[in-house]
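User: Hey, quick favor. My workstation is busy. Could you predict this chain's structure for me?
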Amino acid sequence: MKFALKTAAALALTVAAAGGVQAQDVVRHGAGSFPISSAVEIPSGKTVVYLSGTVPSVTNPSAPKGSLESFGDTKAQTVNVLENIQQQLKALNLGLKDVVKMQVFLVGGPENDGKMDFDGFMAGYTQFFGPAARQPDLPARSAFQIAGLADPAWRVEIEVVAVRP
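Assistant: No problem, here it is.
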């Protein structure tokens, strides 16, 4: 009987102590002066949210349908896509600070001799992440040049993974 009472008391203390433990924060490892994290650690107890790839919206409806002018150059498309992602995150009660992983798909068009416009992408990206954006919570990120996206005028698609605090 004494053993059963001691075991029950020890179990109750363990459960009570566990209830008071706070989940640790997401840990981001820097990548030097480049505005990304080289690695991100997500502790147990966090909810991971995967957003599907987001492509640009038409920003110039007076331009010919499906033209590069209707969506803008790589920088303009990057800004548009990140604004759209920001709105998607907001609807989920999240923000850009909660993004832990980003995959970027860039298309090289004839305007860049078939090469992706990484500088244009970075000009848009750094408006949202990095010192100039005052966003210290940087995602781990990959950027790829791909052959094309569903619309020939799209130059950017971005998918993100966020963590609910």
